[in-house]
Amino acid sequence: MTNTWQGYLRADGRKGIRNVVAVAYLVECAHFVADEICRAFPRDDVHLIGFPGCFPNDYAQKMMEKLCTHPNVGAVVLVSLGCESFNRTRLAEIIEASDRPVETFVIQKSGGSASTIQAGRDAVARAKQVIAGVPRVAMSVSDLVVGTVCGGSDGTSGISGNPAAGRVFDRLVSEGAACIFEETGELIGCEHIMADRAVTLELGEELKAAVDKAARYYEVLGFGSFAAGNATGGLSTIEEKSLGAYVKSGNAPISGIIKPGDEPPSGGLFLMDVVPDGDVRFGFPNISDNAEIVEMMASGAHLTLFITGRGSVVGSALAPVIKICANPDTYRALAGDMDVNAGAIIEGERTLNEVASEIFDKILATAQGEQTASESLGHQEFILTYKSFEPIGPACLPTK
Amino acid sequence: MKQTEKLICLHDADNVLVALGAVEPGVVDLANGEQITLTTAVTLGHKVALMPIPSGALVVKYGMPIGIATKDIAVGEHVHVHNIASRYTATHYRDDDAGLNND
What we know:
- The complex is a heterodimer.
- By secondary structure, chain A is α/β, with parallel strands linked by helices.
- Chain A contains 14 helices and 14 strands.
- The longest helix of chain A has 21 residues, at about 200-220.
- In chain A, about 60% of the residues are buried.
- The interface between A and B is large, with 40 and 41 residues.
């Protein structure tokens, strides 16, 4: 397999591996109309995203701005009800400044549902024509931003799928890619060993502080980042889940901490701090796995490695998800939803290195346009809710 | 090579083993030539005690503490939410579906 391919060149110099039209609703009241606009088109190149809240939120505004200018996005259609607080004018200006086609439809001014749906469909059709001419550019591993999450973890995740993903991360980092791992609430118990991998002592302290913040946050909520199915699959405590999850970060030095929407300043390995700053205000930091995928996309992730034991089936809007199944029984039950069978490691049929190499090849194939299992099934999960963050401190990106 | 090992030790410092598939109660051969007698059945991904773990002692997996024993755990016993607890936040599980009904 070749290690260079043709990506999509954006005006800011970033390169995409997909070229989709994003249709974005700016409040739940516009969700149906936006969804109806998308349904007139094949699922592979028109994707639905949005923010459901009526009340303003700086985090959600930033996330939507970053997502609408993601390197995989070629054009945007915005759908507003009209009276919601979201700053649609600012969002449209930022998309326009990124040199992407953007059209805004306000349902209250566009004659209601039926006529807005028709107008939106016409706009998507126009956008598709324009982005068919986006310039192509040579792209390689060093241009990639890759995220990793695990979901539906069980007692196999930490001994097959996650260590295999960790070896892939090591290889990606060594070839110049930016890799993002996350969920500080699922690193509780690992903070000291993780801090030892930081490129500076000060960054190590920030890593520990980020995990402490997550532990405090979850303590107030009364639940850890731990679902009932994790226990069914053999995990007994958050520390055990964390140690299994932590290995997917591999062994590379940790170059920095970013928050959702911050782009890694270079290649290397970065922790994303997804737990809000300040008082506990808006509920659970990540209410389901797709919230984490959305945050990594907002930080520029071209694709996400998703390691599952119990058997998640999700994909994502905007950026492909590669699903790595850690549990051989789950793989047999849900093979059509999985891209890689890391369960073969548990059964002694394949080595960690063999599976890592298969995942790496899958990343190259996906970057070159091959559809992942969730893409070919049409999965486009997306969720974005309220949060609040302070900017990262100076010790968080020592290489910058 | 087909896996013949049923229970693996992930780290030298561990006091638990991890099941690589469903294992019935009884004598099980380990990779180091020793044997262990399981007192309960366990399924894929679950843990059994490799040595006695007294109440209040750390449970160690991957060479790292994963919680504290909440009662005395005998060799070969299933180690899970019924006899260990987090040192950080309590574990949430459904009583009807915590993987405790293997026997």
